[in-house]
Amino acid sequence: MDLPLRLLNGELLYRDIHYLYAPFSPYLNALLYWLFGVHLDVLQASGILGAVIIVWLSFRIARRLLEPLDAMLGVLCIVVWLVFRPQGNLISPYAYAALHATIFALGALLCSLRFNELGRSRDLLMAGALIGFAAITKLEFAVPAAAAMAASLLLTVGLRQGARRAVVAAAPIVLITASVYGWFLHRVGWETLVVDCHLFYTHLPRSLIVYNAWRAGTNRPLASLAEMAGGVAVCAVIVSSVLIAALVVAARGEGAAKSRSRQLLWRCLIVLVVAASIAFGVARATGGWDGSPLRAAPILLIGVVIHAWPRNRLAGQREGLLIISIYSLVMLLRVALRVPSGGPYGAFLVPTTYVVIVYLLVRGLPEAIRRWRHSDALATTARQAVRVLLVCALATGAGIAIARYQTRYRFRVSAPRGELRVVETHHPALQEALNYLGDHSSPEDRIAIFPEGSDIAFLGERRMPLRHQILLPGLMSSADERRMIGQLSSEPVRFVFVVNRATGEFGAEVFGRDFYQELGSAIEREYRLVKVCGRNRNPKIEIGDPEFFIKVLERK
């Protein structure tokens, strides 16, 4: 919220404001503020538009594989489990950079599919341009898009001609990335851009390495592999359920076919029970798995790529499946052992994976049953069973999402620059902090929020002048920490807000105690506690307490 406003007010990204991502999204949002006003509704309106574009692109991609009805079911999976997921929706995303980069990456994938179908150079150039925009938005999202374009070139025109045309397609990528990053390198310098802000994932502090290991599941590989096995078991439960539904219908027939169907029905029931037991055991043993079959997505995608890889020239639909699967697999490399089903981060990684899974269920599974049993009727029944199961799952998911929004997010925080709904435990502290800011300070007063929470400054119409808006462990050097201590006095910063935000996923839990102790001591020395916002008003309450709080400290 606050970063684009600071850019609109004349500050320079990276030099004046520490930022870990590429520069496109903050400047785009600053432009939206300039055009439509500085308000939270502006960002949320852009989030709505971005979500609509993602859904539309996903539908166009799904139509390369599926009939309109089945493509609609695949896109509804994205709508229910990604766009409106309560734990991390696309309208108010954890990072607009991820939202915008997803749009560019999906657009590049669609253009690569169109090149594979039609062989037009303009589709290839458009894919290159979109990859370039993805690279200046969130760098890692450009990689799967580039992999999809490379696969499309290889499948469409072959290795030798594909290498020549790849040079042409790379022209817009180089032009866009070199011009944008070159300008910032000229303005802020290599040390700030690459070493301090880690823009190209170099010189990473230990905290970010720990966090990325947690995201990828490599911090506990055995448990992650167990959850992946549990995901395979859930897939087996789904397939067994489809087969059981189809065989129940077939078992109503007569003669030998009826007898064989009943034998297969009992075998499928045994597989169902065993697979469900494995999935339940993994969930109990690991404690952190929600039972999602997407944990097995890398295995499924690798299998699809191996099966669909052509030994000679193949028909377009199978090539389209291969291109989409390569894109999906490369997109999941960062979370290879711990693929999320959605949530704050996974919503941007798995849209095309949902499309591939729906394809495997609606087209791949019935076709396998038809070849296995030599029965078109059984394959048709299985396809109908898959559609029914998908509709039931979507209805259940939508109902759960509605219930969670109605029960968990019914508390409204009101502020001059917008309203947002929060969980009950966060509501009193946030509203009290904003009310205190409005009653006891003026717009000219400068504030600081530790370890993170610049939304308080934005919503409360106050300026937060510090270069580091988010104080995660390891992001500041000792010299940066000393400069910030000096800046608290020289600006001067009248109020400091300390938010109950534990950062254990970054390897250190408590701000001021486990990291940035010098800054924490300076705050204790130069500021006095004036209010504890939240249900627990004990002045000795500390970060990590189960009760959410915000401490307000004023300069002595």
Describe this structure in words.
Helices cover 64% and strands 6% of the residues. The chain is mainly alpha-helical and 556 residues long. The strands form 2 sheets. The chain has a 4-stranded mixed β-sheet. α14 (316-331) crosses α16.
Feature tags:
556 residues; single chain; 21 helices; 6 strands; mainly alpha; four-stranded mixed beta sheet; two-stranded antiparallel ribbon
How do the helices and strands line up, and which of them pair or pack?
Elements: H1 2-8, H2 24-36, H3 40-62, H4 68-83, H5 96-118, H6 121-135, H7 142-157, H8 159-188, H9 190-196, H10 206-216, H11 221-250, H12 255-286, H13 297-308, H14 316-331, H15 343-346, H16 351-373, H17 376-408, E1 411-415, E2 418-422, H18 427-440, E3 447-450, H19 454-459, H20 478-490, E4 495-499, H21 517-526, E5 527-533, E6 550-555
Q: Summed up, what is this model?
A:
With 556 residues, the protein is mainly alpha-helical.
Extract low-pLDDT stretches. 312-316
Instruction: Count the beta strands.
Output: 6
Protein structure class: mainly alpha
Helix count, per DSSP?
21
Q: What share of residues are in beta strands?
A: 5-15%
User: Which descriptor suits the 3D outline?
Assistant: globular
> What percent of residues adopt helix (DSSP H or I)?
55-70%
User: What letter string, H or E per element, gives the SSE order?
Assistant: HHHHHHHHHHHHHHHHHEEHEHHEHEE
Average predicted confidence as pLDDT:
90
Give, in spatial order, the strands making up the sheet with the most strands. Answer: 3-4-6-5
Head-to-tail CA distance between termini? 29 Å
Rg over CA atoms, rounded to whole Å, is 26 Å
Task: Tell me the major beta sheet.
Answer: 4 strands, mixed
